[in-house]
Write a structure and sequence with these properties.
With 149 residues, the protein is an alpha+beta fold. The protein contains 3 helices and 6 strands. The relative contact order is 0.19.
């Protein structure tokens, strides 16, 4: 095992902490977590950009994505009022194997992560352990933004 000199290790630590500190100030985040069946965590980012006006309404779209168990599909339904998400739901259309478990957890968690957030810049990261469904949900949000404009 090769040893790193202390001065280099200290420099790497300082640079790393500086980077984390500067990135932490870039956006406001909201985290939700629970421990009912395994660990559930989610982060959504939403800034207060009011330059885009969205039509009030309920928007639905389907998204497909590749998982280790094959192609999955989810149906997304989002209600928007005054540019803010007031309701959201996800229903699994097609899912197989272990992916089905992640989809069920994602369906249960997504509403609490996105309701009350501004549609204009809403984006979710891993929700309930499902990064693939989260990515598909973000794609659906892009479609919904276009439809609501």
């Amino acid at each position: 095992m090769k040893r790193i000199p202390r001065s280099k290790a200290a420099l790497v630590t300082v640079v790393g902490l500086s980077l984390v500190g500067s990135l932490a100030g870039c956006a406001s985040t909201t985290s939700a977590s629970s421990t009912d069946s395994g660990s559930t965590s989610a982060t959504s980012t939403s800034t207060s950009d009011t330059s885009t006006t969205y039509k009030d309404g309920t928007y639905t779209t389907d998204e497909t994505f590749e998982s280790p168990d094959g192609q999955d599909e989810i149906a997304i339904r989002v209600t928007v009022k005054s540019g803010v998400v007031t309701a959201a739901s996800v229903t699994t259309v097609n899912s197989q194997g272990q992916s089905a478990r992640y989809q069920a957890q994602f369906e249960s968690a997504i509403s609490s992560v996105v309701v009350g957030k501004s549609l204009s810049s809403l984006s979710v990261s891993t929700v309930a352990g499902s990064s693939l469904a989260s990515s598909a949900f973000n794609s659906a949000l892009d479609t919904i933004r276009s439809e609501a404009s």
